[in-house]
Fold this sequence. Notes:
The chain has one domain. The chain contains 13 helices and two strands. It is mainly α. The protein has a two-stranded antiparallel sheet with strand order 1-2. α1 runs parallel beside α9. A hairpin with a 2-residue loop joins β1 and β2. Helices cover 73% and strands 2% of the residues. It is globular and about 65 Å long. About 2% of the residues have low confidence.
Amino acid sequence: MTQLPLPFEIISISILLVILVADLLLVVRRPHVPSIKESGLWVAFYVGLALIFAVAMFFIGDAEHAGQFLAGWLTEYSLSIDNLFVFVIIMARFAVPPKLQQEVLMVGIVIALILRGIFILLGAQLIQNFSWIFYIFGAFLLYTAYRQAFNKEDEAEESKDSFFIRLVKKRVATTPDFHGAKIRIKVDGKRIFTPMLIVFLAIGSTDLLFALDSIPAIFGITESPFIVFTANIFALMGLRQLYFLLGGLLERLVYLHYGIAFILAFIGVKLVLHAMHENELPFINGGKHIEWAPDIDTVTSLAVIIGAMVIATVASLVRSRKDRAKEPSNIGA
């Protein structure tokens, strides 16, 4: 695989960061609840931008670069959609007014981008210096896949505050109501926090947990920090609009977590096989590579990721349609 030109990488990241900043300023200057049409146009714009970027990587780099980016972007996008489920619960639990939800989502996206940037740098260094880290990444993803598929807590359990949030609530006094997007206001001459602080902390801690899952997953597809970072940026761009576009549809994607679990398990196995192929194992024939361990190519990875998400989505919509058909009709009542 050829190396991408450094000017292309610098220009690409600069343009993407400018777009993110412009999106943030738009939210600050025009706080509102976007319509389905507006949200759909923005999501289509960001998806189209990602596909154009993949084409650019194909011509500037090669098919391997483009394929790795698409596979990484789709993986991160699917995990981001799963992240939206938790965002919905957080918004409902803290009764965030609809007009303020855009600000909360944008702050959540910025926090996620910063956290993932840090983990990307750490992950790249670990891979460069300790190639056996793929075993740990693989095992972690297999565990995460199992937890995603078979240990899915119900909404009542998921809606409980984490230990960190409970601790903050106990130690930090807050106003009973929101005051716009302000985190702190003055009441009777005293500075006091608003519930927005708790919401931001809940979103940030959620982002941290999802970053722990997503970074090993994408490093199972590519070892290029540039592709990892750009795939994460594109997965987060448009996430705010996707939140409003999907709306109640999120609750109908009942099998989505199985699709995500399958993707994580597949990448976990891929990482372990890659480690077995690349690293000498001292307990096998005096320390040799396992020649039979295959390296799963990018095209296969891309096909598996797309197939898993399509099957999970279609199965969810079919299940939802059947459930609605079973509901008693009020016609003639």
